[in-house]
Write a structure and sequence with these properties.
alpha+beta; 5-stranded mixed beta sheet; 248 residues
């Protein structure tokens, strides 16, 4: 395959950025999108040019580091992570636009790399679980209804890639935050901090400068792990309940 890439190049957050055009040839349909970018970078290095900076880690679809907007879609045309997107999703001769996540809370570090530490601070605001554990507890010591266990596992699948923020026209982090809150709040082990967790994490999310949610649903559509949109409604109910309890 021969492709034309229009790639966002930006030295750092303070520098202006622009799209640069590159031609890449000899691309196999079985390559992943990141392997295709590796091929581009090998060519750039041989030409004495600065390679394109992009984030990646596991390349197995489980860490979410490979955050790219491809042809205007978070992670590209398939519902998967960028590292699991293969070039057979494109056609010979295609022109492909490659950009970083676009959100004020995710400043550009370089080229396609953005700083997503705002997500870390939202998680940190939730604190910790005070339930004493000691040695590994007996698996059946704390009964958990199956519906609650299923819900917790479903929300715990969130890998924090930020596709929800990138896809949202408002740059909202509500789907991410709701996943992190709900997967703990539905379990008995998370009950002691239930109210403070939701209040503190939502407050931190707002402080980071993420946009407001208008329930367009783009976040759930882009999520590679399928976190459901009703997760946001569940978090809002938790927040309202916590606010009423705190106000007495």
């Amino acid at each position: 395959m021969r492709l034309t890439l229009r790639v966002w190049r930006q030295r750092d957050a303070a520098a202006p950025g622009a799209m640069s055009t590159y031609d890449v040839d000899g691309i196999s349909a079985d390559m992943s999108f990141l392997e295709m970018l590796d091929t581009l970078n090998e060519d750039l290095i041989l030409r004495g040019e600065d390679p394109v900076a992009f984030d990646h880690d596991c390349r197995e679809g489980i860490c979410g580091a490979c955050s790219l907007v491809i042809d205007g879609e978070a992670h590209g045309p398939e519902r998967t992570t960028t590292c699991q997107l293969h070039m057979r999703s494109f056609r010979d001769g295609d022109t492909i636009d490659v950009e970083p996540w676009r959100a004020s809370a995710f400043p550009v570090v370089k080229d396609l790399v953005v700083d997503r530490s705002a997500f870390d601070r939202v998680i940190q605001a939730g604190g910790y679980i005070t339930a004493p554990t000691g040695a590994a507890p007996e698996a059946h010591a704390t009964p958990v209804p199956k519906a609650d266990a299923d819900s917790a596992f479903e929300h715990a699948e969130c890998i924090g890639c930020g596709a929800c923020v990138a896809a949202c026209p408002n740059g909202s982090a509500m789907l991410f935050t709701s996943a992190k809150i709900n997967h703990l709040n539905v379990l008995p082990q998370g009950s002691p901090e239930r109210e403070t967790r939701v209040l503190d994490m939502v407050a931190q999310m707002d402080a980071e400068g993420f946009g407001g949610c208008t329930l367009t649903g783009e976040c759930a559509t882009a999520c590679p792990k399928g976190i459901p949109l009703p997760s946001i409604a569940a978090m809002n109910k938790e927040w309202l309940r916590a606010r009423r309890k705190v106000k007495g």
